[in-house]
Design brief:
Blueprint (H helix, E strand, L loop, with lengths): L28 E4 L5 H12 L3 E6 L2 H13 L4 E5 L5 H15 L4 E4 L15 H26 L6 E5 L12 H21 L5 E7 L8 H5 L1 H9 L10 H11 L10 E4 L8
Parallel strand pairs: 1-2, 1-4, 2-3, 4-5, 5-6, 6-7
The structure holds NADP nicotinamide-adenine-dinucleotide phosphate.
Pfam family, one: adh_short_C2
Protein name: Dehydrogenase/reductase SDR family member 4
Keywords: Oxidoreductase
Length: 273
């Protein structure tokens, strides 16, 4: 006899920030790209709450200024600079300012990504393909490469790449974006192997559906929202603050034997066998 599966899910608190009481990142310096909003901001805040000095960055000066002021008003040690991750000169200044303000670098979080258009993979224009791969994949690769002289001087260096659950199972109409996120999983595996002799750990976080401007269509349109949460075991969209703790763990010495891995943070959305 078939039994009906109960679909209700208990409501658990997502107020993770109020519980933080550890200083795993004391003495470390972090860069988080695209850290003036959404997941990047959540990661930057959490790393700073755990004791790191954090360099905030994104494309718009006002966003950087407002975010730095906000985090400083929370008692966190942060500074900021403009960095469009696709611009060589901006990336150079990002590293220079981090050294000038904080004296070195221990943690690089490559978080910036774009998805300029929605459509099928084979209808995507070459221009859109190039933009997605330039920002999501090539900029991550260049940031990693350019950070090495600094990370090699760190006692516990670590790189964290923000991929996506779409990297495992391409999202409908976000095919090229999904392909770029799969490429990041491979970038993580390949570079973790190459950088292990230098003691540099490289890991990925693959968020599921998280409530940010980026995913607005999924949580603002009722029909899309219903379809989306039907695929999530916990039957809710995640909050940006539910990603920061995973980044803090991967950046910390608690993860000293973890490299080349991907942590999926998706409320149970399926990602693998
Ligand atoms: P978001 O809320 O839209 O955040 C955008 C942030 O990126 C802002 O700070 C923006 O500031 C900055 N930004 C945009 N383009 C940039 C560029 N070229 N260079 C530097 N900064 C840039 O996005 P999010 O949802 O937090 O996404 C963050 C990461 O998580 C991305 O890698 C995304 O693929 C991944 N992810 C998101 C979800 C989700 O459901 N939200 C799921 C899986 C993975 P400015 O406008 O000032 O530049």
């Amino acid at each position: 006899m078939l039994h009906t599966i109960k679909q209700g899910v208990r409501k658990f608190s997502t107020n993770v920030t109020s519980l933080i009481n550890c200083n795993r990142l004391e003495g470390k310096v972090a860069i988080v790209t695209a850290s003036t909003d959404g997941i990047g901001l959540s990661i930057a805040r959490r790393l700073a709450q755990e004791g790191a000095k954090v360099m905030i960055s994104s494309r718009k000066e006002l966003n950087v200024k407002n975010t730095v002021e906000k985090l400083q008003s929370e008692g966190l040690e942060v500074a900021g600079t403009i960095c469009h991750v696709g611009k060589t000169e901006d990336r150079k200044k990002l590293f220079e300012k981090t050294v000038a303000d904080f004296g070195g670098l221990d943690i690089l979080v490559s978080n910036a990504a774009v998805n300029p258009s929605v459509g099928t993979v084979l209808d995507t224009t070459e221009e859109v393909w190039d933009k997605i791969f330039d920002i999501n994949v090539k900029s991550t690769y260049l940031l990693m490469k350019e950070s090495l002289p600094l990370l090699k001087q760190s006692k516990s260096p670590s790189i964290i790449i923000i991929s996506s659950i779409a990297g495992y199972q391409p999202f409908n109409l976000l095919g090229v974006y999904s392909i770029s996120k799969t490429a990041l999983l491979a970038l993580c595996k390949a570079t973790a192997e190459e950088l292990a002799p230098d003691g540099i750990r490289v890991n990925c976080i693959a968020p599921g559906l998280i409530k940010t401007k980026f995913s607005r269509a999924m949580h603002e349109m009722e029909e899309a929202h219903e379809v989306a949460i039907s695929q999530i075991s916990m039957r809710r969209i995640g909050q940006p603050d539910e990603i920061g703790g995973t980044a803090a763990f991967l950046a910390s010495d608690d993860a000293s034997y973890v490299t080349g891995e991907v942590i999926v943070v998706s409320g149970g959305m399926k990602s693998r066998l």
